[in-house]
Write a structure and sequence with these properties.
The protein is of the alpha+beta class. The chain has one domain: Aminopeptidase (3-Layer(aba) Sandwich), CATH 3.40.630. The chain is 30% helix and 32% strand. Strands 1-2-3-4-5-7-6 form a 7-stranded mixed β-sheet, sandwiched between helices. The N and C termini lie far apart (34 Å). The chain binds coenzyme A (COA). Coenzyme A (COA) binds next to strand 4, helix 3 and helix 4.
Length: 161
């Protein structure tokens, strides 16, 4: 439930949402931000699924997933909730929508990278069943390392085995 008792509603992002996504990037990340140009590109891409989450009719979060041809591994490329809407299940709802979309595309695994010092995001991913399987040193603009996390998607062969 949201701050005023309203539920989080997730929908597919449209090209018209690009400006809002750019603003969410600006208030959510100190570096490694997606440019408006990249956002526009990804929103048009057939190998990207993008979602926005609304609380009381206002977009407060977004996520993007990437796919590669001939791969059953989907990648969560970006997810963010505006600071004032955090802790109300917005990212959880976006993750659920992303996992469903990835499974529909035939993916059996969802992978992501996260800064090793991002306690909020790591806490969320662990709670949702993601586990650490690797690490990239010197991954972000400021030299910080990334943890690599993955989850077998339910409904997939791996999860059912
Ligand atoms: C990470 C982020 C997307 C979470 O968004 P959110 O909408 O607040 O997430 P939810 O409300 O769905 O879930 C919050 C969960 O985060 C975790 N969490 C939040 N703050 C935390 C903290 N300080 N330490 C550990 N876990 C924390 C908890 O698991 C919490 O679950 P709970 O509500 O059951 O306790 C948000 O903090 C954000 O946008 N951060 C900046 C951008 C970013 O770091 N994106 C991820 C890049 S990989």
């Amino acid at each position: 439930m949201g701050p005023s008792g309203s539920r989080v509603a997730v929908r597919v992002a449209q090209a018209e949402d690009a400006a809002v996504l750019e603003r969410i990037e600006a208030v959510s990340f100190d570096g490694d931000r997606l440019s408006r140009r990249s956002i526009n590109h990804h929103l048009q891409s057939p190998t990207c699924d993008a979602f926005v989450a609304e609380l009381a009719g206002r977009i407060v979060g977004y996520s993007m997933l990437f796919y590669r041809r001939n791969s059953r591994i989907a990648r969560l490329y970006s997810i963010a909730t505006v600071p004032e809407a955090r802790g109300h299940g917005v990212a959880g709802a976006l993750m659920a929508a992303g996992e469903k979309a990835a499974a529909r595309r035939g993916a059996d695994t969802l992978r992501l990278e996260v800064r090793v010092d991002n306690d909020a995001a790591i806490g969320l991913y662990h709670r949702l069943g993601y586990h650490d399987f690797g690490r990239h040193e010197d991954y972000y603009e400021d030299g910080q390392a990334a943890l690599r996390l993955e989850k077998a998607l339910s409904g997939s062969k791996v999860a059912a085995a």
